[in-house]
Amino acid sequence: xxxxxxxxxxxxxxxxxxxxxxxxxxxxxxxxxxxxxxxxxxxxxxxxxxxxxxxxxxxxxxxxxxxxxxxxxxxxxxxxxxxxxxxxxxxxxxxxxxxxxxxxxxxxxxxxxxxxxxxxxxxxxxxxxxxxxxxxxxxxxxxxxxxxxxxxxxxxxxxxxxxxxxxxxxxxxxxxxxxxxxxxxxxxxxxxxxxxxxxxxxxxxxxx
Length: 208
Prior knowledge:
Layout: H1 2-15, E1 48-51, H2 58-67, E2 72-75, H3 81-90, E3 108-117, E4 121-127, E5 131-132, E6 152-158, E7 165-170, E8 185-193, E9 199-207
Parallel strand pairs: 1-2
Antiparallel strand pairs: 3-6, 3-8, 4-7, 5-6, 8-9
Helix pairs in contact: 1-2
């Protein structure tokens, strides 16, 4: 099983972003291959709930689950409290007293995150369950951290516990003051499909 471990890990990892990988044609080996297509977000979340006394390949699938922001639960029985509670929390709902969202599921679908900045900042990258949307611009830094080289990312799904770290490169140090009528700003645009079926756009702006 050991010789198959690395190919299995690569296979599952590629499922998180299938368009980013182009298979090599063995007949054209050594010749110029067609360029790989640009990476696009596969808007899905992979959750693995497994109950088995034998191995189910959970380690091989871990990169796929992590890349899509999913959950991994392995138990000996479907009747275990950990298994049942974890499955119940996937379909958790907002309290009934919350306006508009009362009784609706907390999960969101087809989520995308885009970052806009003033010229004093550049986006270095993101760490978390994200896929690069390859959106280049003057606010994208050459210094890459995590999934870098872009200012927009796709997220398979999101919930109140989803955490993503965005890193910035400061291009204007503090020894170069701004004029009185200018401000520094960072804006996050989060677009997602609510469990009600409506598409929502949330803007979060930091200015100073």
